[in-house]
């Protein structure tokens, strides 16, 4: 074998091999997991002793903007902190963009991502610039990172597919250039009816081409922004079940409860997935409120309870919309857990799933998981379980991509101490 990770604790849901309640050894050969069992007798060219630490399939970010990332301050900073000023600021930056700068920033971000065990990213790419510079750049980045990172691209008409002249033609060109998914932004079209028409147009195009759909949808505090209803209905009408995602859905935070009680079964029936972006929703939404000030994130636990696949996305890192961020999906899960008040034990595990298995389903990743036959993409965390990983935003002591160790970091947990004892000692033990 090429690699064995010994004494690995597996997360509940990411591992089909969850019959193992004690640590297991994971054997890897030729880029695939070939064995998962306690005390594997075989040896390998390289071995990692996880020593009871959590080993998980990689983090997956289902919603990102790689064309804008790491552009913070160019040409200026978003003063109001609103979505609309961010869109205006991006419009100021677009004419200044060069393909090389786009590629350099995206590759820098991919390095950050890999070091944090983030090995699959769905990135929207703006198609409203007729030069399609960003599309060309990210298609090139996708090709360059393919040996170690799955980058899926969404053709995103930032200024509205109907509102922005030529946007639909640009979107179709982007798809022919290698972009994977059809995007949209119905709440940014001129009217509600234009928004609904944009959803129909884009879903019909996706159905004709056999593509997935992922729309920015209802990123607003307006409870009457109900494009998710049209998205679910069109998905159902066109038989796109399981291939469509609504991103943000923040208006649902402000909707009437009765309406939501009708809406969630429609989303479930259509097999539409949902993506919340906690870091961005908590900072961009509620900006018109005084107090009480709405959180603005969509109804995550309620959608999960309704059987809808819900994931968390990072959305932005150091760009016109968000000045912070680090490519760490545990930071995203941590914020999501707090904003959604998902503090129960099962709920905290569900937040870990929202940055691992759930987005992997949205992207349609092949061979995701920890079982024989799965792709050998794994992260060794400096934590014992998913809850501790979120609580500590635990370090990634080893990242394995396509069967190769691509990043390593020392375990901080082993060097910290409290009163002379290791910091990770259970309180129960400390009292004893
Ligand atoms: Fe976004």
Query: What's the end-to-end separation, in Å?
Result: 43 Å
Mean pLDDT score, rounded?
93
Kindly report the spatial arrangement of strands forming the biggest sheet: 6-7-8-9-10-11-12-13
Give a list of the ligands. fe (ii) ion
**Helix vs. strand class:** alpha/beta
The overall number of domains is 2
If you compute it from the alpha carbons, what radius of gyration comes out, rounded to the nearest whole angstrom?
Answer: 22 Å
Any guess at the CATH architecture of the largest domain?
Answer: Alpha-Beta Barrel
Reported for the largest beta sheet, the result is: 8 strands, parallel
Strand content: 15-25%
Oligomeric grouping of the chains: single chain
CATH topology of the largest domain: TIM Barrel
> What characteristic shape results from the CA principal axes?
globular
Share of residues in helices: 25-40%
The count of helical stretches stands at 14
CATH superfamily of the largest domain: Metal-dependent hydrolases
Instruction: Give the low-pLDDT segments.
Output: 421-432
The number of E-state strands comes to 18
The first-level CATH class name of the largest domain: Alpha Beta
Top keywords for this entry?
single chain; 432 residues; alpha/beta; Urease, subunit C, domain 1; TIM Barrel; 2 domains; eight-stranded parallel β-sheet; four-stranded mixed β-sheet; 14 helices; disordered C terminus; binds fe (ii) ion
Give a summary of the structure in a few sentences.
The chain has 432 residues and is an alpha/beta fold. It has helices spanning 83-93, 99-115, 133-145, 167-176, 192-209, 227-238, 257-270, 278-284, 300-305, 329-339, 345-353, 357-363, 386-392, 427-431, and strands at residues 3-8, 24-29, 32-37, 46-49, 55-56, 59-64, 118-126, 150-156, 181-182, 212-217, 244-248, 273-276, 310-312, 378-381, 396-401, 404-408, 417-418, 421-422.
């Amino acid at each position: 074998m090429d690699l064995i990770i010994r004494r690995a604790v597996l997360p509940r849901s990411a591992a089909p091999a969850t019959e193992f309640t004690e640590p297991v050894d994971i054997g890897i050969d030729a880029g695939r997991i070939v064995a998962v069992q306690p005390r594997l007798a075989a040896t390998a060219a390289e071995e990692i002793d996880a020593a009871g630490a959590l080993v998980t399939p990689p983090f997956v970010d289902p919603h990102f903007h790689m064309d804008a990332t790491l552009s913070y301050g160019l040409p200026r900073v978003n003063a109001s902190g609103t979505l609309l000023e961010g869109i205006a600021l991006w419009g100021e930056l677009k004419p200044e963009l060069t393909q090389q700068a786009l590629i350099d920033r995206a590759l820098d971000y991919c390095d950050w991502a890999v070091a944090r065990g983030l090995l699959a990213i769905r990135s929207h790419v703006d198609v409203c610039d007729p030069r399609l510079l960003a599309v060309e750049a990210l298609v090139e980045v996708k090709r360059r990172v393919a040996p170690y990172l799955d980058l899926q691209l969404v053709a995103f008409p930032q200024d509205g597919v109907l509102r922005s002249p030529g946007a639909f033609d640009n979107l179709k060109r982007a798809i022919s250039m290698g972009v994977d998914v059809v995007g949209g932004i119905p709440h940014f079209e001129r009217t509600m009816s234009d928004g609904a028409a944009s959803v129909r147009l884009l879903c019909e195009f996706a159905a004709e081409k056999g593509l997935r759909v992922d729309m920015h949808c209802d990123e607003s505090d307006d409870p009457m922004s109900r494009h998710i209803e049209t998205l679910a209905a069109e998905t159902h009408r066109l038989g796109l079940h399981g291939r469509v995602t609504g991103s943000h859905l923040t208006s649902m935070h402000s909707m009437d409860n009765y309406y939501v009680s009708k809406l969630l079964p429609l989303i479930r029936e259509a097999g539409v997935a949902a993506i919340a972006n906690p870091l961005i929703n908590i900072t961009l939404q509620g900006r018109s409120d005084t107090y009480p000030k709405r959180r603005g994130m969509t109804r995550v636990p309620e959608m999960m309870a309704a059987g809808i696949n819900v994931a968390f996305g990072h959305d932005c890192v150091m760009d016109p919309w968000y000045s912070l961020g680090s490519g760490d999906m545990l930071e995203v899960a941590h914020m999501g857990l707090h904003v959604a008040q998902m503090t129960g034990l099962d709920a905290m595990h569900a937040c870990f799933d929202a940055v691992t298995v759930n987005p992997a389903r949205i992207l349609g990743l092949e061979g995701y998981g920890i079982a024989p036959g799965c792709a050998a993409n794994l992260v060794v965390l400096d934590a014992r379980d998913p809850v501790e990983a979120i609580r500590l935003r635990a370090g990634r002591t080893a990242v394995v991509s396509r069967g190769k160790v691509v990043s390593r970091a020392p375990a901080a947990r082993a060097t910290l101490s409290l009163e002379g004892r290791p910091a990770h000692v259970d309180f129960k033990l400390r009292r004893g």
